[in-house]
Design brief:
This protein is of the alpha+beta class and about 160 residues long. It folds into two domains: about 40 residues; about 120 residues, Mannose-Binding Protein A, Chain A (Roll). Helix content is about 40%, strand content about 20%. The chain is built from three helices and ten strands; from the N terminus they run H-E-E-E-H-E-H-E-E-E-E-E-E. A hairpin with an 8-residue loop joins strand 5 and strand 6. The chain is elongated, with a radius of gyration of 23 Å. The chain starts with a helix and ends with a strand. The relative contact order is 0.18. It binds D-MYO-inositol-1-phosphate (IPD) and calcium ion.
């Protein structure tokens, strides 16, 4: 009885050590796979991935495309996330629309889920609601934000 208990433990030890080896191999192959799929259009910040497909369209169209892909329009909640989106803007030399707007209440900018924004990076003088028609937010290659008409066409960046 004692002997069969011991050999059971030894069997389990071998199985655990096999699994540890397989896990290490999987981790290293996954790490390489991440590098490949992030090149050149994706950026990882913590748990978040930002990605562009190169598509350009108005706010509603960008919002719909990100959602259809299982993500949402990029919604930076801190400076590191903002910088990652900025890198994609610089790479394409095209401004993007963020998942932020004040469509519901003028001057009160919210994420797509209705939450008030917790971070902003407005260009000096913005948001100015130019001509009373600017409810969406574009991110310039400087990383700074400008409110802009949602009907304009901008580059897509989704977050997942
Ligand atoms: C405008 C200016 C302005 C900004 C507006 C833009 P435009 O560009 O950059 O500072 O607040 O959102 O539309 O119309 O002069 O090319
Ligand atoms: Ca503006």
């Amino acid at each position: 009885k004692g002997d069969s208990g011991l050999s059971e433990i030894n069997l389990l030890k071998r199985q655990v050590s096999t699994l540890e080896g397989q896990l290490r191999a999987l981790q290293s192959s996954f790490s390489k796979y991440k590098q490949v799929i992030m090149f050149p259009n994706g950026r990882i910040v913590g748990e978040k991935i930002f990605m562009t497909s190169g598509y350009e369209g108005n706010f509603d169209s960008l919002k719909q495309r990100c959602s259809q892909a299982g993500g949402q329009l990029a919604s930076p909640r801190n400076a590191a996330e903002n910088a990652a989106i900025q890198q994609i803007v610089v790479l394409y030399n095209k401004s993007v629309f963020l998942g932020i707007n004040d469509i519901q209440t003028e001057g009160r900018f919210k994420y797509l889920n209705g939450e008030n924004i917790v971070y902003s990076n407005w260009q000096t003088g913005e948001p100015n609601n130019d001509n009373g028609v600017e409810d969406c937010v574009e991110l310039y290659s400087s990383g700074k934000w400008n409110d802009k008409s949602c009907g304009e066409r901008r580059l897509i960046v989704c977050e997942f």
